[in-house]
Design a protein that fits this description.
Blueprint lengths: L7 E4 L7 H11 L5 E5 L4 H9 L4 E4 L4 H36 L5 H13 L16 H10 L12
């Protein structure tokens, strides 16, 4: 199994795909991943584009190895804080869901996990089941973990 990536260091100019395109793809696929962009052909416009695209920092070549190491350490520290924040939020969410969806069976734990995976993803959900099966409790759990109303796409 491959180890997860903690930080990306990419050049702006590369064969096949430029660094800004890579940055845009990473921002969509792994927004929590810190990206350091570097180039030997830096200008203000390129640096601004990289930072607006989500780069954590912009490094011009030739670079001081100690300065690069510092920026890398800062990016990794930021990533660790972000990961810890996500873990704490998830733990709090699981505790909140545990109050609504009681039980410790494998099925109820899987249901809690799936509800947390839906968090932040606007979707219409149809809940079906017989009377007494917990439809209204599940609807309440979904509502409590739904994205804010202003984050939902317009239906107009």
């Amino acid at each position: 199994a491959a180890e997860p990536v903690s930080v990306v260091i990419s050049d702006i100019r590369m064969p096949g795909m430029d660094g800004l395109t890579l940055l845009a793809r990473l921002a969509l696929q792994a927004p929590e991943l810190p990206v350091l962009m570097m180039t030997g052909h830096g200008d203000v416009a390129t640096a601004v584009a990289a930072m607006q695209g989500g780069a954590r920092d912009f490094i011009e070549k030739p670079f001081d190895p100690e300065a690069l190491e510092l920026k890398l350490r800062q990016a990794l520290a930021g990533r660790r804080l972000s990961d810890e924040n996500q873990r704490l939020r998830r733990r709090l969410s699981v505790r909140g869901l545990s109050g609504l969806l009681r039980g410790e069976s494998r099925q109820i734990r899987q249901l809690r996990e799936r509800l947390l995976e839906l968090r932040g993803h606007p979707a219409r959900v149809w809940i079906s089941g017989e009377a007494g099966s917990g439809r209204s409790t599940l609807a309440l759990a979904l509502a409590e973990h739904a994205p804010p109303a202003d984050a939902l796409p317009s239906t107009a």
